[in-house]
Design goal:
7-stranded mixed beta sheet, Rossmann fold, Quinone Oxidoreductase, Chain A, domain 1, 6-stranded parallel beta sheet, alpha/beta, 15 strands, 2 domains, globular
């Protein structure tokens, strides 16, 4: 099969599109033949050696694949060849086929496009966990979403609306802000004078919840525009800068800074993760959420797509096609 192979940490341009042996299903696993492959920001960090995971070489990056079950292990009873599924893995997604434990594979309804299924895993799963378990977002609260035109940002907008919040989206260009409005945001802001802009957008109260996958100066501004009892969610650092937090702000304004690590959550609380995915799939079936797909690209072009994602040029979720 064809795959994107990382032979050593380095520039994304050094990724190799090459042949490698087909995967074999473990006793408790399945092999999925790809119809759509999700691209995520952490994938780009991983191949540069900048992510928490440090795999041995060579490896195939990629966490999510939707497609058809090709084979199953001897002890697997819940799936059979031909089933439509989406699979979550630690590695192996940027390939024509991926092996995954049966416990991380989800059956797909016939009505769900493969690209949407990929989006609902990492990007939408992260936003859902952040807002449902970590922020405990309540109807009527104001949610401010930074990096709002990215895949997790669009997810946070739509999930926030599904949970009954007023959503203020922050994005860097007019095209991105228009995409946020189409995704359901109630208001949009640029990054200019962000602290004052958030205060003005919230009638002086400040944000009840901030969803921040950006870090850097955007985090600094948001940390000074929180409401009392607010929750500032630390999702990631797409700006490339990990900010330092003056803890006196949390003391004086009585709000919480809350970390969100979706990968750790899925491993530590698989039952809750399954419930989350069931809710997302139900909302999708009801038409309450609809992933925004940035585009569909050839698997061979994965490096250039990753560059686009790391450069914060994508609007929504990029998908690779085998």
């Amino acid at each position: 099969m064809k795959a994107i192979i990382c032979r050593g940490f380095g520039a994304i341009s050094e990724l190799d599109y090459a042949d490698m042996p087909d995967p074999v299903a473990a006793d408790d696993g399945v092999v999925v033949r790809a119809a759509a492959i999700g691209v995520n920001f952490p994938d780009g960090l991983l191949v540069q050696g900048l992510y928490q995971l440090q795999p041995g070489f060579p490896f195939v990056p990629g966490m999510e694949m939707a497609g058809v079950v090709e084979s199953v292990g001897a002890s697997v009873t819940g799936f059979r060849p031909g089933d439509r599924v989406v699979a979550l893995g630690t590695l192996g997604g940027y390939a024509e086929k991926m092996a995954a434990p049966a416990g991380s594979v989800i059956a797909l309804p016939d009505s769900m496009p493969y690209a949407d299924a990929c989006a609902l895993l990492c990007a939408w799963g992260t936003a859902h966990h952040a807002l449902r378990q970590r922020a405990r977002l309540e109807p009527g609260e104001t949610l401010v979403v930074l990096g709002a035109a990215g895949s997790t940002g669009i997810a946070a907008i739509q999930i926030g609306k599904a949970m009954g919040a007023r959503v203020v989206a922050v994005a860097s260009s007019e095209d991105k802000r228009q995409a946020c409005l189409k995704a359901g945001a109630d208001a949009v802001l640029p990054y200019d004078d962000l602290r004052d802009a958030i205060r003005q957008a919230t009638g002086g109260k400040g944000a009840d919840v901030v969803f921040d996958p950006v870090g850097g100066s955007a985090f600094d501004a948001a940390s000074r525009a929180m409401a009392r009892n607010g929750r500032l969610l630390v999702i990631g650092f797409a700006s490339g800068e990990i900010p330092k937090f003056p803890v006196n702000l949390a003391l004086l304004k009585e709000y919480a800074v809350v970390g969100v690590f979706w990968g750790g959550f899925t491993r530590a609380e698989p039952e809750v993760f399954a419930d989350n995915m069931a809710e997302l799939f139900a909302w999708h079936g009801q038409g309450r959420i609809r992933p925004l797909i940035d585009g569909e690209y050839r698997l061979a072009d994965a490096a250039s797509v990753l560059d686009r994602v790391l450069g914060r040029g994508a609007i929504g979720k990029p998908i690779l096609l085998p």
